[in-house]
Write a structure and sequence with these properties.
The chain has about 120 residues and is of the alpha+beta class. About 15% of the residues lie in helices and about 35% in strands.
Length: about 120
């Protein structure tokens, strides 16, 4: 999980690796999950939750536009680069031909590991 910040503060991400491609040195998982597929809210490790999916989308898009780099425990030493990003919403699931509740509402990412 991670913290969704406003446009004036940095975005902090930490997540569980759900897929890994060791040969290509890539990892994938949810950067942030706002709601489970059943619609129940997710409370992150900091006790926060995102009720406004537009805020999550804004943060994801800002990260993609301005950074795309990952590091270890905020050391600012780049160890990975974003290669995949999508914020899933019920509307986007339907546009993909899935049911509205096929996936959690959240931000899926993939990173190429450099270090």
């Amino acid at each position: 999980m991670g913290e969704v910040k406003t446009e004036s503060t940095p975005l902090v991400l930490a997540g569980t690796i759900l897929k890994r491609d060791e040969e290509r040195r890539m990892v994938f998982g949810w950067a942030y999950m706002a709601k489970r597929a059943d619609g129940s809210a997710v409370v992150d490790h900091s006790g926060d939750r995102v009720d406004n999916v537009a805020s999550l989308e804004f943060s994801a898009y800002e990260y993609v536009l301005k950074s795309r780099e990952g590091d270890v425990m905020h050391t600012r030493k780049t160890t990975s680069v974003l290669v995949e990003s999508m914020v899933f919403t019920p509307e986007k699931c339907e546009a993909l031909g899935l049911s509205k509740d096929a996936l959690p509402v959240g931000w899926w990412v993939g990173f190429k590991i450099l270090d």
